[in-house]
Each structure stands twice: as structure tokens, then as C-alpha cells.
Amino acid sequence: MGAIGELRPAPSALPGAGPSLEKSTTERVLQIRHWTPTLLSFRTTRHRGFRFRPGHYTRLGLGDPEAAVWRPYSLASAAYDEFLEFIAVRVPGGAFSEKLATLRVGDTLQVDKASYGFLTVDQLAPGKDLWLLASGTGLGPFLSILHDPAVWRDYRRLILVHSVRRAAELAWREDIAALPRPELRADATATLRYLPVVTREPGATTLAERIPLLLADGRLEAAAGATLDLADSRLMVCGNPELAKELRRILGERGYATNRRGMPGQMAFEKYW
Ligand SMILES: Cc1cc2nc3c(=O)[nH]c(=O)nc-3n(C[C@H](O)[C@H](O)[C@H](O)COP(=O)(O)OP(=O)(O)OC[C@H]3O[C@@H](n4cnc5c(N)ncnc54)[C@H](O)[C@@H]3O)c2cc1C
Ligand SMILES: NC(=O)c1ccc[n+]([C@@H]2O[C@H](COP(=O)([O-])OP(=O)(O)OC[C@H]3O[C@@H](n4cnc5c(N)ncnc54)[C@H](OP(=O)(O)O)[C@@H]3O)[C@@H](O)[C@H]2O)c1
User: Fold this and answer.
1) Per-residue pLDDT tens for 168-196?
2) In the prediction, which pLDDT does 97 show?
3) Between 235 and which of 66, 126, 128, 267 could a Cys-Cys bridge form, CB atoms 3.0 to 4.6 Å apart?
4) Which domain holds residue 43?
5) Is residue 191 domain-shared with residue 260, that is, in the same domain?
6) Is residue 79 part of a domain?
């Protein structure tokens, strides 16, 4: 089997650990969008051999190729796009993200030839409603998933919840509201409910509390017009690790489980730190 794009264990957790040079390709920045001074998204060229499944992440390398700093980043672009797209927060003093934030169109960076992770729909048992719960840059992999024709065909309802501190961080807000794009509509049966949540700007969105609270008191289900039900609901959570921990606990108490020993579960998680 080829090494590219396979589902395989996460790479070494060593800080900054990355693939050897022959296991990465050099790609060029095509476009950068600054959503706020600390949030940007960018597109790069895509090596024609690079394969991934919606929900996967890869590793990006910056700096002198012999001593590059590497970090995992989720792919926000569609599996069929000719470019790769990422969304990134700038962490003050962060070894990688501070460098990333200075990138200009035309600059180069290294991209691991492989993609990784378990935040993919094939980790879930078949269901009817797919809940995608993101905080901050955790939106990225869900954008890729929402550009996958299969989820529009296989689910009845897609529910995207994006929690951010400030409204300006609701990246791709208009694009999401305009989904599905015509090319995804052909055999689409699903509807999309997009629920933005702004937590530090009162009045910016109807939902303004943290996701676990909104879930626990039923407000999220009311806003989605859907009830969480073990038989039909599938959930994916991405971003802040405390958010993931709390949701794992709440959902676990309701009987939801993650994929175990290859047995698809009802929920899947990706923690960013
Ligand atoms: C599987 C995986 C996928 C990831 N995908 C993305 C992605 O798509 N976009 C992205 O911006 N980051 C993503 N990250 C985080 C990313 O790899 C780096 O940690 C981040 O860019 C900061 O790197 P740094 O060297 O500047 O700081 P680090 O030393 O790596 O991090 C310092 C601190 O910054 C905070 N932090 C790190 N990442 C984030 C974040 N995304 N949002 C809010 N606070 C954060 C945490 O408190 C962390 O302890 C991902 C991480 C993992 C494990
Ligand atoms: N976003 C900014 O304005 C900003 C500015 C400068 C630097 N940064 C850097 O970026 C990082 C934070 O980025 P971020 O704002 O994208 O991520 P974040 O702190 O994880 O916040 C994103 C969303 O997740 C919510 N959240 C945080 N912890 C949660 C928990 N335990 N349970 C449920 N929801 C939770 C937040 O709500 P709450 O608002 O209630 O926390 C917010 O709505 C920090 O490391 C900081 O250094 C961010």
C-alpha cells in the first residue's frame, strides 16, 4: 500500500517533530486572508500526489528546510480542490504560529506528504444527523467535511456549531451560509443548520454561551431544530481540549462512545493542544 493519505497512527508527539525532507514537499503560498490580527487562512499549491480524507490533518514545516519547525494543521479545503487551505490562529510567542503569521504570497513552506487523523466520518456508525461542533480554528476540518458530497448524500441533517470569542472570528461565515454549493447539490438530501456562537461580544449571536452549557440545557438542540438521539445522532468535536473533555463527559453519560477497536462509534474528537 502507498504511504500517502492513509489512515495511520498520529506522528510523534515530540514538539516540532517532523518528517524527513524526502517525506515532505515544498509548496508555495497562493493566497492569504487575515480575518483578524490573530486569525488568518491561507491557500498553498498542492502536490499532485497529496491525498487526504476530509477531517484529516497534515504537518507544515517552516524555516530552513534542514531545521524546520513542524506543527500539525487540519486541512480546510475539499479533498478535490487543486489547492490546500488552512486556518491558523497566531499564538503570542508561539514558535510556529508567529512565523506563520509573517508569511507572504509567494513564500514557501514544507507540507508532509502524508495526512493523518481519526476525525473522519468513517469513524462513525451510520446515522441521520451529523453534528459538527468546533471552537476557534477547529472549524477547519469541518469545512472540508462540508465540501464532501458524501455527507450531503448520507445524512438527513448537518448541524455546524462554531464557537468563537468575537464575531470577526466567524471565518467563512457567508460561504458556510451559502452551502451547499451547486456541485454538492446533485444527489444531496441533507439540510445544513449553521449555528455561530460568539462568547465575548454580547448580542452578536443568538447563542452566546459555551457549547457544553448550550448542550446540557437543551438550547443547542432547540436552535438546531433537532434532538440528540443515540440511534440517529453522530457528533464530531474539534478545537479546544477542555471543550472536548467536557463534551466527551456529557455525551459519554448519555451513552455516546468513540470508535473502539475498529467498531464505529457515535462521536469523534480532535484536540488542538
Ligand atoms: C491534530 C492537530 C491539528 C491542528 N490543526 C490546527 C489548525 O488547523 N489551525 C491551528 O491554528 N492550529 C492547529 N493545531 C495547533 C497547531 O499545531 C499549533 O499548536 C499552533 O499553531 C500553535 O503553534 P505554536 O508553535 O505557535 O505554539 P504552541 O507552542 O504549539 O502552542 C502554544 C499554546 O497555544 C494555544 N494554541 C495552540 N493552537 C491553538 C489553536 N489552534 N487555537 C487556539 N489556541 C491554540 C495552546 O494554549 C497552546 O498550548 C492543530 C493541532 C493538532 C494536534
Ligand atoms: N481570540 C482572540 O481574540 C485572541 C487574541 C489574541 C490571542 N489569541 C490566542 O489564541 C488562543 C485562543 O484562541 P481562540 O480564541 O481561537 O480559542 P479558544 O480560547 O479556545 O476560544 C474559542 C471558543 O471556544 C470557547 N471555549 C474556550 N474554552 C472552552 C471550554 N473549556 N469549554 C467550552 N468552550 C470553550 C471560547 O469561549 P470563551 O470566550 O467563553 O472562552 C470561544 O468561544 C490563545 O492561546 C491566545 O493566545 C486569541
Assistant:
1) 999 999 999 999 887 777 888 999 999 99
2) 97
3) 267
4) 21-112
5) yes
6) yes
